[in-house]
Amino acid sequence: MATGITKREQHSLDAISALDFYEEQIPLPNEEAPVTLTYPNKAAITDIVQPFPRRFICVDDQGEKPLAKLPDNSFILDDNFFVLNELICENKKADLFYLDPPYGTGFDFHSRDLDHAYKDTMRQATYLEFMRRRLILMRECMTDTGSIYVHIGHQMLAHLKVLMDEIFGSNNFRNLITRRKCSSKNFTRKQYANINDYILFYSKNNSYTWNQPGVKPEQEWIEKEYPKVDELGRRFKLVPIHAPGTRNGETGQPWRGMVPPPGKHWQYVPSKLDKLDKQGDIHWSRNGNPRRKVYWSADKKTALTDYWEQYRDAHHQSIKITGYPTEKNLEMIKMIVGASSKPNDLVIDPFCGSGTTMQAARDLGRRYIGVDASFSAAKATLQRMRHGLKLMGDYVSGKSKQAKQLVLSDVGKTINSCTFITDSCLLDAYNAEIRELSSI
Ligand SMILES: C[S@@+](CC[C@H](N)C(=O)[O-])C[C@H]1O[C@@H](n2cnc3c(N)ncnc32)[C@H](O)[C@@H]1O
Q1: Taking phi first (over 0 means left), then psi (-120 to 50 degrees means alpha), and beta for anything else, what does residue 280 get?
Q2: Cα–Cα distance between 372 and 354 in angstroms, integer?
Q3: Phi-psi category of 135—alpha, beta or left, where left has phi over 0 and alpha has psi -120 to 50?
């Protein structure tokens, strides 16, 4: 743009970007071009979204039954890549995805008795491409009003944010939620103690399902926000009865001989202010300044922020769990399911571990599908969904009592069934193990 001043003068006026100064030598990036993550062997979308020949089979006490379609309310033992492709072929769409994939920690995860649960040893580009392929598939099988929540650690958070912007569009980014996962730790390293993990929340479009979640505030907050107490013991606060902006109508006219302060108008017409005063809802200060009383009521909630302190994972003996490593807080996932889906919607967790999302969805009257490639996860999920949770449960360890005995002696009731599905290749390779799981 011609401003009539030289570039050097402009810089002395507005020295924001060093790049501008070298504009002629180094071209500026095209602002319209999407920002993408670059690494070798990034597969073409057409190679990712394509039918794979898999045959899904329901396995139960009665035997094996090939399935024409994947049913709701089921757990599928398989690599989620094949399941997501199958869902696309069937045109079956999720209203909500919650996933808590491996975080790129470099660790192997075990049960309390050191039985293997799952590996998290993929590094950098391999990990990112693993996630990218699956996120592309998830976007394909999301309803237009759907949302996706990706729970992740600090290790790959920044890379995944860029990948998700690429796949879902940065305009569909909703929140980066910080969740406090545990209490403060001892100082064992030359760095700050890590107590949080993160959730990336995106929607497919602008018109996504949203039921505003609220939280009951702490007593300390209530007392600070509503500092006054009336003769009946009710807490209240005082707020001005004027609002910014001038008006020519009734709300700009004098009330009880007072004009609104300069640049303001009354929040209500004079007749409404008279009514509030008659009801005792206007408080008059000693120097005659009127303010409105706003009472605290027990059903009032405050907006849930993007910092979640209240949803830590199991940390004491009175919490019911399956004992699966990295098992997430059930109440946290219930909150997500309640906020981002409607009754009877389909909730899918493609990395379901011990089935926490499936239980949250079932408890709130949603349909659900959980997928996991680990036998330990299958055991934990089927135990949870068919027989319930236990205080400090250990549904993972091979050394724990047989599933059936555990159910009869410790939990004692069958809660619900959950269809157990796997694919024909796995069934051929691990027939005995899969049969054992089917009888949980
Ligand atoms: C962090 S854990 C999930 C824990 C779960 N949120 C819970 O509450 O129990 C990640 C899970 O992803 C599973 N997983 C990893 N790669 C997978 C894949 N390609 N397909 C299906 N599951 C996979 C692992 O077996 C593991 O159970």
Answers
A1: left
A2: 9
A3: alpha
pLDDT in tens, 200-223: 999 999 999 999 998 888 899 999
Q: Which residue's CA is the closest to the ligand 1 atom numbered 14?
A: 351
Distance from C-alpha of 147 to C-alpha of 157, rounded to nearest angstrom: 18
Q: Give this prediction's pTM.
A: 0.83
Residue pair 429/435 in contact (Cβ under 8 Å)? The answer is no
Element (H, E) at 277: helix 270-278
Rounded mean pLDDT of 345-370?
A: 97
Pocket of ligand 1 (CB under 6 A): 79-80, 100-102, 118, 324, 326-328, 351, 353-354, 356, 371-374, 377
CB 236 within 8 A of CB 226: yes
Boundaries of every domain in the chain = 49-215+312-438, 219-295
Q: How far is the CA of 346 from the centre of ligand 1 (A)?
A: 19
* Per-residue confidence band for 406, with pLDDT thresholds at 50, 70 and 90: very low
What topology is assigned to 49-215+312-438 in CATH? Rossmann fold (3.40.50)
SS3 289: coil
How many degrees, rounded to 5, is the angle at CA 233 between CA 229 and CA 238? 30
Give the pLDDT score at 409.
32
Residue 121 in tokens = 């040893």
DSSP 213: -
Burial 298-311 (b: 16+ CB within 10 A, else e): eeeeeeeeeebeeb
Task: Confirm if 333 and 363 have CB atoms less than 8 A apart.
Answer: no
